[in-house]
Amino acid sequence: MTDRITVGVDGSPESRAALAWAGREAVRRGLPLRLVHVWHWAPHDVIGGGDREDHARWAQDMVREAASSLTDRHSGLEVTAEVLEGAAVELLLAEAAATRALVLGSRGYGTIVGFLLGSVGQQVIAEAPCPVVLVRADDHAPAEAAGREIVVGQQGGRDDSAAALGFAFETAAARGAAVRAVRAWSLPPVFAYSPGSLKMLDEAGGLEPYEREALAEALQPWRERFPGVPVTQHVELGSGGQVLLSLAGRAQLMVVGRRAHRSAVGSRIGSVAHAVMHHADCPVAVVPHA
């Protein structure tokens, strides 16, 4: 992994918002920023004519202007840019393997724009070895300075969401923001009860205290590592996706973990990451579990 942030650009309003977000984040973290545009020549997809050379020229000009807009805005930021031609999934996954985070523009509601269309976007998000941050076209920088929090979902045991918690705390420390760590829980079905689980719940004082204790235990190493980051523990009855989406209005960034589920039709992400990625109106970071 290279110590940099990478952003995909395609000239759309969504990718311009992603570019602005990535530029601010790179400055905060003191990291260089890499711009990439991925394209594959398909004459039947070109609207209004043009040939391969025309598109190559347009791509080079677009990337150069995007890089120039960043260096004009952030004079000390180190920016590199490259146009890549070939299969989008393979090239973007290769970029993801060599960066701290991959930032992409998103329309939300399931549509990833530009070089990420449908299953391509889903596959990149499901298989990227680094966090993938999705930014909407209507994202605005003032939201980052309006007292909003870094909201992060936690589930399972102490180590299950460690990667997502780590990304959330690192981002909060770089921004001087607070973290809201969220653990959603639901009543277990009757058949799931066992003498062992009943004893654990009894010792914890009930279901909700048990969930609070599990969240506190998962947060402990990150509180110790980032003592200056204010933390709110949020435990709520409900599905993970519903609880997190109910908090999107107070989030400057929402962080969720994901495990890729492989099937005959390709990779897909879990239901919580899927819901947040498609419906949250703030930037979303999808972080692979370690």
Automatic annotation (TrEMBL):
Domain of life: Bacteria
SUPFAM superfamilies (alphabetical): Adenine nucleotide alpha hydrolases-like
InterPro entries tied to this protein: Rossmann-like_a/b/a_fold, Universal_stress_UspA, UspA
Taxonomic lineage from the root: Bacteria, Bacillati, Actinomycetota, Actinomycetes, Kitasatosporales
Name the record gives this protein: Universal stress protein
Similarity remark: Belongs to the universal stress protein A family.
Pfam families per UniProt: Usp
PANTHER family linked: STRESS RESPONSE PROTEIN NHAX (PTHR46268), UNIVERSAL STRESS PROTEIN UP12 (PTHR46268:SF6)
Every UspA domain range: 1-136, 150-288
UniProt source species: Streptomyces siamensis
